[in-house]
Amino acid sequence: MSVTPPRDESELLARAGALAGTPVREVAALCGRPVPRDLRRHKGWLGELLECALGATARSRPEPDFVELGIELKTVPVDQDGRPRESTHVCTVSLGELVGQRWPTSTVRRKLARVLWIPIEADPRVPLAERRVGAPRLWSPSTREEDVLRADWEEHMELLATGRFDEVDARLGVYLQVRPKAANGRALALAGDIDGAPSATLPRGFYLRPRFTRELLGT
What we know:
The structure is a single chain. The chain is built from six helices and eight strands, in the order αααββαββαββββα. The chain is of the alpha+beta class. The strands form three sheets. A three-stranded mixed beta sheet has the order 1-3-4, with helices on both faces. Strands 2-8-5 form a three-stranded antiparallel beta sheet. A two-stranded antiparallel ribbon has the order 6-7. α2 packs across α3 (45-54). The radius of gyration is 18 Å and the shape is globular.
């Protein structure tokens, strides 16, 4: 099933609001998609399902999900108290294009400039098909939030661009962290080491810490 892209923010927010309280199985039926038993082998499935239901257009391109509106969609698995259960993936680190990148034109900034956050129930005691979609929130970072995100990004990028991969771990960053993004340790990506020579390393991604998404969701 193909859903027409929303014309503006108001229409997108109205569509997302109409899904609040809806079980996953009903959203999947709207899109003509079967619901898997669990998400262990279907990581990203919930996000793709909501993209389908809301009419996202970016597919897998490094652009906001609703390209014409400049809005990114982020689904957040939450516990029974509405608290995020895990970090939120922002985008993949482009290890082959680290030198010369600047915050104003970075993929991270484009992805986080305007975000539609949708919490989804993630209580393991509730079958995936019966988990409910939460109330949406349309958000842009405040000046203070962007300053922190930018400082985190610049700290990570300085280390990555100079090949100091061993110094980059999930402990770095107030809001934004960098973590390996691969199915296993054999999935390597080509980058440059500290001297600029080609080097193989694990693919990495930018993630938002749960404490940050908890703050912006007000839980």
